[in-house]
Amino acid sequence: MVGLAGSGKSLLAATYLDWLRSTEQNAISLNLDPGATNLPYGPDVDVRNYVNIYQLMDEYGLGPNGALIVASDLAADHFEEMKAEIDESRPDILVVDTPGQIELFAFRESGSLICKLLSEERQAIIYLLDAPFCKRPFNFLSNIFLAAAVHSRLAKPQVYALTKSDLISDEEIDQIISWSVEPEALQSALQREASSMLSLIGQEIAETIVQSGLIFEPIPVSAKMNQGILELNAAVTRILSGGEEARP
Ligand SMILES: Nc1nc2c(ncn2[C@@H]2O[C@H](COP(=O)(O)OP(=O)(O)O)[C@@H](O)[C@H]2O)c(=O)[nH]1
Ligand SMILES: [Mg+2]
Questions:
Q1: The predicted structure's pLDDT at residue 33
Q2: What percent of the chain is modeled with pLDDT above 90?
Q3: Which of 70, 146, 85, 72 is nearest to 113 (CA)?
Q4: Which of 152, 171, 181, 215 has its CA 20 to 30 A from that of 51?
Q5: How many angstroms does the Cα of residue 198 sit away from the middle of ligand 1?
Q6: Neighbours of ion ligand 2 (CB under 5 A)
Q7: Cα separation of 1 and 30, whole Å?
Q8: CB-based burial of residue 1 (10 Å sphere; 0-12 exposed, 13-18 middle, 19+ buried)?
């Protein structure tokens, strides 16, 4: 699960885990967020057992952001131990919840390190697009731009989940989907939204992203209402096992 802070990674991890287990799949969770307070699931393997941000704040006189950065970097020293814990459970599927702040996982070494460490297994990135945030075309564009940056760093197949879709109307969902499948729809929305200078830059960014082939139709999900999980799982399964569901 990768996405901006608050995009719904932890709740989607919880809902997806419940769903996988309800279909008798052997799924476990790895929490990589050292700053997580109330997780909506009980992590099977947890970075917080290896690094403690409060201790780091005390020891080094750091604020919460500094401590999170140090904690993410220090976590890398414990990946082998976490991997050993994971291997002990012999799961078929490992759901990985990443730190609230996307840059801690995607743009620092520890993210690609853990991907490499787990790389004998097939992997998929579920990139979360927060639906209420993506209602505005410029927000959607920035988010896709970030998704492209994540892809350039981690180089794994990505599935796009339009999260919290219970909070926007069906028309708004359709509009966001149209932006991701018809570049012209996004471009005219950008034009309507902004001054000509801003929209020109936006259009150029949109064009680059469209040409990169990185925009895919997002799958509307609601972790809260338990919607879209079947569709999300189908997309993940296609990547992980070429169409067949992993079985215990
Ligand atoms: N309405 C609604 N709220 C959601 C949904 N998913 C997450 N949230 C809320 O969004 C906030 C952030 O979610 P969280 O999973 O902690 O985001 P994270 O920072 O990406 O891990 C929490 O208050 C969640 O309850 C959803 O599908 N629908
Ligand atoms: Mg979280």
A1: 94
A2: 66
A3: 72
A4: 152
A5: 31
A6: 9-10
A7: 11
A8: buried
Residues 6+ apart with CB under 8 A from 68: 34, 35, 53, 99, 101, 104
- Report residues of the chain scoring pLDDT below 70: 120, 195-198, 214, 242-248
| Residue 34 beta carbon below 6 angstroms from any ligand 1 atom | no
**Does 194 sit in the ligand 1 pocket, CB within 6 Å?**
no
> What is the residue type of 150?
V
Question: Percent of the chain at pLDDT above 70?
Answer: 94
**Ligand 1 in reach of 8 Cβ (< 6 A):** yes
Kindly state if the Cβ of 5 falls inside 6 Å of ligand 1.
Answer: yes
**CA of 97 relative to ligand 1 center, distance in Å:** 13
> Residue 127 forms beta bridges with which residues?
2, 160
pLDDT of residue 242: 65
pTM: 0.93
